[in-house]
Structure formats: structure tokens, C-alpha cells
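Regression check, pyridoxal-5'-phosphate case 423:
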Amino acid sequence: MGKQRSEELFERAQHCMPGGVNSPVRAWQSVGGNPLFVASANGATITDADGNAYIDYIGSWGPMIAGHAEPTVVEAVREVTASGMSFGASTAAEVELAERICRRFQSIDKVRLVNSGTEATMSALRAARGATGRDAIIKFAGCYHGHSDGLLVRAGSGATTLGVPDSPGVPQQIGELTRVAVFNDLESVAALCDSEVAAVIVEPVAGNMGVVPPEPGFLEGLRELCDAAGALLIFDEVMTGLRLGPAGYQSLCDVSPDLTCLGKVIGGGLPVGAYGGKAGVMDRIAPAGPVYQAGTLSGNPLAVAAGMATLDKLDEPGSYERLEEAGAKLEAGMKAALGTRKACVQRVGSMITMFFGTEKVSAYDDALACDTEHFGRFFQALIDEGVWVPPSQFEAWFVSLAHSDEQIEQTVAAIKRAVARSD
Ligand SMILES: *Cc1c(COP(=O)(O)O)cnc(C)c1O
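Current build output:
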């Protein structure tokens, strides 16, 4: 397929933007080749700058669960835009979205809207530190919680050692407050979870090292360890929140966190995040309490309208059943395509990852042992077949309500050919 326009745009972009992109994974560095630029998208189809169409499994990394340019979402945004785009004062729609979130999530009495998942997790940690008077936190290697300083830390060495900052620019002193545990390994948490720990933050289903489900008892065990240490348990449901169920993964696993972070789906493609929890913690947030957190565009009418319209789509009967059905169909097709190759498919609902070169991934080290070169070849073959998936082995693919059975079948056929071509 011709890719001249994308190539020309990337050339220009590299002169005026770091790496030519506004977020690193868009640059396709881990799979090689130049990234495609997008011209438009509709439903489950995305069209590049050269006019080639693809079936899309990135879905803006999760938010587009209703499909691209879903008419009801577009109309909702169009309508509010004409009445003014941001006021810096409160609106009825914000109250409605907050009420909807509080009604759904049993663990959330009060919620604060912010502008991204990064802001949600950063602010939730501040709330936890403010509530406990403690500074240390525990996160898991391979879990991503946005790019704030203290969360850009994974495991440099063993789980018992202090965190090593992942990125230059993160002060050592801040990195040291982050203790890194092993996902699905309660002992690694027990060894770190003491009276200095303000919070344990976790993706209840990890999606940012590829899809890694929690093993039975893991999340329950975290709840117990937090209670014993007097630390707060934070579920980062920015990815899983409204994607895996109407009341988050927490309602499916029946573990109640102290604080929950949301984002992506609740903004329907516009910049949104949220954090919430029990009134006792949330009432310490300014202006109710002394823990400061603010935002010029927080709860702005466009983002709220897009989020509400997306929730409306998800509230239609059978939505989550459809996402599960489409995900299961894709999973079955992937497994058949892989045959006896050393590889595996891991899925929870509409989040799914094909891992090459390994039979199971339950923690970050397993993910890192994958054959990323094989994935890179597979990715390129799949793009040639007209299927656009995340350009990295360590990401979830997202199925939306707009993916038809026919598109899933086309995808499975394309995967079959791409797998065969990339051996
Ligand atoms: C995407 C993501 C974030 C960061 O959200 P941004 O809106 O990109 O800042 C945080 N946590 C999880 C689990 C995510 O998947």
C-alpha cells in the first residue's frame, strides 16, 4: 500500500516534535518502520493519510469503546459546543456525570474530575498521602499509571530494593518513595507493605504490559495487606473502569478499593480523568479539605458530554455481553491461527493481547521474555493485511461495540495469514 503522505508528514513531524510524535508509542519504535498518520476514523475503521483503510484495535488506546465518530457522541459534543466550550465554573452536566459514577461504583462516595489518567493517579496518590500522613507508595512492575514522577518507576532490581527511576528527570529522592512489587505475587507486597506506606496502587487487570489478569486471591490479598498496614488500596481503573463492566472491574472481582482512578472511556475520546473514593478521604480534597488539587479545564462541557453519551451507549442492553462475545470470538481465532507455536493469547472482556515466544504471562518479567522481534514482523504483516493494532508487544488490543462479526472474521483471517508470514 502507498504510504507517501504518512512518510512526508513523519519527516516534517520529526523536525518540530520530539521523535515526531506527541506520545512515544505512536512512533512505532519497537516494531520498526515509519508510523502511519491518521486522516479519519468511523466505527471500527480507521483511514490513514494515504487513504488506506484498516480495522482498528487501538481505539485511541481504549476510549473509543462505542466506535469512532459514533453519531450520538458526535451529536452530544456538537450540541454543547454551540453553548460555549469552557467556563471555569460549574455546570449541571458535571454533577450528572459525577452522580452517575458514584451510583455505579460502590466504593466511590465522591469523585473529582480531572483531564487525564495521569492526573487522576497523581492526584489519588496525593489524596492517599494526605489522608495517611505517609509518603511511601507501592506499585507493580509493568503497571503503568501515567507519567508523573513517582509512578515512572518499575523494577530495576529485586522487589525488596528501593525503586530505581525509569526516566532521567525523575529525582532519585522521589523514586525512592516508590517501592516496586511483582504483579500476582503477594509475598513481594508483604515484604514492602509497612507503616510507612500510604497506598498500594494497582491495575486490577494489568493492561500496560499486555493483558495480564490477576490470579485468584491476588486482589483480595492486596486488600488484606493494605488493611493490616493501614495503607490505602488504589485501583487504577483508567483502562478497565467502564470497559470491563458498568461498575468497574472492582464489582466483578468483588474487592473494594479505597480510591479508584478512571479515565479513557468516561471521556469518550476527549481528555478526561477522575478519581474518587470514600467521603472520609475525598472530603480532605480542596476546597472541602487541605489537600490541594485543581484544573482550569476539569469537567469541561465537551469532555463531559462525550463521556455521558458514551456511557449511554454502554447502558444499552447487551453492550457488555456483545463486547465479551466479540472478544471471545477474536481470542478463539487468534488461538487457532497460532496453532502449536510457542505463543499465548490473554484476554479479559474486550482487552486482549497475543504474546509471542511464551506460554503464559503473569508478571512483568514474563512479558519481557517475549519475542518482540517476532511481534514486530507480525505487526508489519498485519498492517499490510489492513489491520491496525498497537505497535508494541506490551499493549492491550481493544474491541469496541462497533466491531461487527464480519470485521472480526476478516481480522481472524488476516491474523492467520500474518502469523504464517511472520514465522
Ligand atoms: C492510559 C492509562 C493511564 C494514563 O492515562 P493518560 O490519560 O494517558 O494520562 C493511567 N493508568 C492506566 C491504567 C492507563 O491505562
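Comparison notes: Residues 155-162 have pLDDT under 50 and may be disordered. The CA atoms of residues 65 and 400 lie 4 Å apart. No diff flagged against the previous build.
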